[in-house]
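assembly run, all chains below
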Amino acid sequence: NAGVTQTPKFQVLKTGQSMTLQCAQDMNHNSMYWYRQDPGMGLRLIYYSASEGTTDKGEVPNGYNVSRLNKREFSLRLESAAPSQTSVYFCASSAVVVAETQYFGPGTRLLVL
Amino acid sequence: QKEVEQNSGPLSVPEGAIASLNCTYSDRVSQSFFWYRQYSGKSPELIMSIYSNGDKEDGRFTAQLNKASQYVSLLIRDSQPSDSATYLCAVNRGNYGGSQGNLIFGKGTKLSVKP
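ok done. output:
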C-alpha cells in the first residue's frame, strides 16, 4: 500500500516548456487535489477533483490544467512553464471532499529557468 | 477572503517542555480542523483532526477547539527534538459554494525543540 505517489521527484524546465506531473493513489479515495507550496505562502490549492469525472479550480489555477484519468490518477499539466511556477507541488487525496483527512504525496520540486 | 492565521515562529522550546501552537480562522461555518506536521523537505502528514468543541488527546498531542472564538490549538507535551518541524493548521471551507469541504491551510508555525 504505497498511499499517494508522485512523479517526477524533481524537474528543471526552461521557460515555455511543457510538462505533466503525475499523481496516483491506491487508497480507493474519491477526491484528489493539487497544491503548490512556496516559501511564506503556505499551501495553495490549484485544482481538485471531488470525484472521478469532475474537476474544479482552486485558489491559483491560472497556467495549469488537470485531468482525472480514472479514480486512481490525477495529473497536472503546465502548458507553457513560467519562472513564477517554480515551486513544490503536492498531490493529495481524501475519501470524500467534505470533512475528511487529506493524505499527501511526497511532492515534486519544479524549477523553471 | 477566508483565512487561517498562524504565528510563523520560530517557536523555540526546551526538550521536555510543552509546546503550544495556535491558529485562528475566519469562516464561522467551518466544521473540520486539522493539524499537519511537515519536516523540512518532506510532505505534510496528519497529526490530529478535531470536529467538536473541547479537547482531543492522542498520546503527547492535544488539540483544542473553540468555535465561538474561532480558535484551534495544538499542545505537544514532553517535547522532543524529533518534534522540530513546521506545523500547519488546516480548516475546511464549510458551506462555501462549489468548494465546500476544501481545506484552507495556514502558513505554518516552525517549532524548534532544543536538547
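Chain B has no helices and eleven strands.

The first strand of chain B starts at residue 4 and ends at 6.

not gonna interpret more than that til we talk
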